[in-house]
Amino acid sequence: MAFYSNESIFQVLFVTLVLGGGCAVLAGHAIALTWRSIWIAAISMVPLGMAVRFVHFALFNETLLQPQAYLAETAILIAAACLSFQRTRAQQMVRQYYWLYEPSGPLGWRLRQDAPAKA
């Protein structure tokens, strides 16, 4: 936690994980619902990382332009958004194509054993 000189661990976790991570999860879910690519979810976390960095700056008087902290926070946000995206996409595939796919863990799907054969 050398990046954050003016904040406690609870403040960092609240801003980065709860506020930023919550937004990342919701964004990943929404992007998956519109059938867009996972790359859109990852790229959209770049400005969200900037917003999280700004919240640290505005509320807790941290340095605004701190590249290491920004990269760490953005990596956490990308991970949260991609996990949410993949979970939503797996649910979509199983729900929409129920005759073809079945769940395979929380993040995946597989071809059903009784799926129709190719003609």
UniProtKB/TrEMBL annotation:
Q: Which InterPro entries match?
A: DUF6867
What keywords appear on the UniProt entry? Membrane, Transmembrane, Transmembrane helix
Give the DUF6867 domain ranges: 8-111
List where the protein spans the membrane.
Answer: 12-31, 38-59, 65-85
- Please name the taxonomic classification of the source: Bacteria, Pseudomonadati, Pseudomonadota, Alphaproteobacteria, Hyphomicrobiales
Q: Which Pfam families match?
A: DUF6867 (PF21741)
Specify the protein name.
DUF6867 domain-containing protein
